[in-house]
């Protein structure tokens, strides 16, 4: 009888432990992800090969259960984030993921533009509208638009950039209305929204969305960038370097394993990203020899400074390089001594 009772107790504890693993706390946990070679996922038609590798670096991010929450407290380079720090107000996990994927798409487009311009190739765009990334609670768009919606027209007009869209709406007065042509799951519909002041302390008006351009870049030779489920804009710099390296005959890798991170703007500016410490750890584990980090014009709290501190903490031989622009990265790599042996 004692054995039966003991078995039942063990079984009950096992069931409770299993069930609790599916109970999510109001936190996210982030940890070092991977350093992924870019040559297998980026292909320029007729592009040149390279001896070394450019690598993007990632962070693993997931909702915390009891076990991951406790483990994060006990582990180096794991961080706990309140839900509101990661997701927008009232934003679902699905909407957050969609926003990250759209930001990745925008990053790829900017990277292609920067690389092809540097290599001297012409660029053209097909502009399809704007994607809704987030909806501001309490504003007119709430309940009528959702993240992932594509706005193709406003008041019957098409625009060539999200900046033009924002300027058009910003010239309206509170109480005015606009008619949007919205594409949801490949079906178009008309949505009428009022214009509202964002808050009492601001004269700025709008419909209450954050957005990103939905545009298709047209280049020759063609380039294909397969990022699967990787989200966010932080791989922009490394995308641009890999694409550019395939467009030119000189191999910028010089035979080295080169990791890095940083957003990329169409003008080549490299921007700050979050969680760079975890990306340094991921790059070191992957055997990277150089790590390119956003320098933010020498700011004391820059990504570069944080990367240097992390490199010292984990005692890596990987060299951390400060980068402000795409040109900075190219210049540094052009002057590297080729790897031997």
From TrEMBL:
<dbReference type="Pfam" id="PF13180">
    <property type="entry name" value="PDZ_2"/>
</dbReference>
<feature type="domain" description="PDZ">
    <location>
        <begin position="100"/>
        <end position="186"/>
    </location>
</feature>
<keyword id="KW-0720">Serine protease</keyword>
<dbReference type="Pfam" id="PF05362">
    <property type="entry name" value="Lon_C"/>
</dbReference>
<feature type="domain" description="Lon proteolytic">
    <location>
        <begin position="229"/>
        <end position="336"/>
    </location>
</feature>
<dbReference type="InterPro" id="IPR020568">
    <property type="entry name" value="Ribosomal_Su5_D2-typ_SF"/>
</dbReference>
<keyword id="KW-0378">Hydrolase</keyword>
<dbReference type="InterPro" id="IPR036034">
    <property type="entry name" value="PDZ_sf"/>
</dbReference>
<protein>
    <recommendedName>
        <fullName>endopeptidase La</fullName>
        <ecNumber>3.4.21.53</ecNumber>
    </recommendedName>
</protein>
<dbReference type="InterPro" id="IPR001478">
    <property type="entry name" value="PDZ"/>
</dbReference>
<keyword id="KW-0645">Protease</keyword>
<comment type="similarity">
    <text>Belongs to the peptidase S16 family.</text>
</comment>
<dbReference type="InterPro" id="IPR027065">
    <property type="entry name" value="Lon_Prtase"/>
</dbReference>
<feature type="active site">
    <location>
        <position position="234"/>
    </location>
</feature>
<feature type="active site">
    <location>
        <position position="279"/>
    </location>
</feature>
<dbReference type="InterPro" id="IPR008269">
    <property type="entry name" value="Lon_proteolytic"/>
</dbReference>
């Amino acid at each position: 009888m004692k054995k039966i009772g003991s078995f039942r107790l063990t079984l009950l504890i096992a069931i409770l432990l299993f069930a609790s693993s599916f109970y999510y706390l109001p936190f996210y946990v982030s940890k070092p992800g991977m350093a992924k070679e870019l040559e297998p996922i980026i292909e320029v038609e007729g592009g040149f090969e390279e001896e070394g590798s450019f690598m993007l670096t990632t962070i693993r991010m997931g909702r915390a259960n009891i076990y991951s929450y406790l483990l994060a407290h006990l582990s180096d380079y794991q961080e706990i984030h309140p839900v509101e720090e990661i997701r927008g107000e009232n934003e679902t996990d699905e909407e957050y993921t969609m926003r990250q994927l759209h930001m990745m798409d925008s990053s790829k487009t900017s990277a292609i533009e920067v690389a092809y311009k540097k290599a001297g190739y012409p660029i053209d765009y097909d502009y399809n509208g704007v994607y809704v990334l987030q909806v501001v609670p309490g504003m007119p768009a709430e309940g009528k638009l959702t993240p992932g919606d594509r706005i193709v027209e406003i008041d019957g007009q098409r625009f060539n950039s999200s900046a033009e869209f924002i300027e058009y709406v910003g010239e309206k007065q509170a109480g005015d209305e606009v008619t949007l042509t919205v594409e949801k799951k490949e079906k178009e519909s008309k949505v009428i929204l009022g214009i509202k002041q964002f808050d009492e302390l601001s004269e700025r008006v709008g419909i209450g969305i954050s957005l990103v351009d939905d545009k298709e870049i047209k280049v020759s030779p063609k380039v294909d960038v397969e990022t699967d489920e990787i989200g966010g804009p932080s791989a922009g710099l490394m995308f641009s370097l890999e694409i550019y390296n395939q467009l030119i005959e000189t191999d910028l890798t010089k035979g080295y394993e080169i990791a890095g991170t940083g957003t990329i703007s169409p003008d080549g500016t490299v921007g700050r990203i979050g969680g760079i410490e975890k990306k340094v750890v991921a790059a070191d584990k992957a055997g990277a020899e150089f790590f390119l980090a956003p320098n933010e014009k020498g700011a004391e709290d820059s990504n570069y400074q944080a990367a240097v501190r992390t490199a010292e903490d984990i005692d890596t031989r990987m060299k951390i390089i400060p980068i402000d622009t795409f040109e900075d990265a190219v210049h540094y790599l052009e002057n590297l001594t080729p790897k031997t042996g």
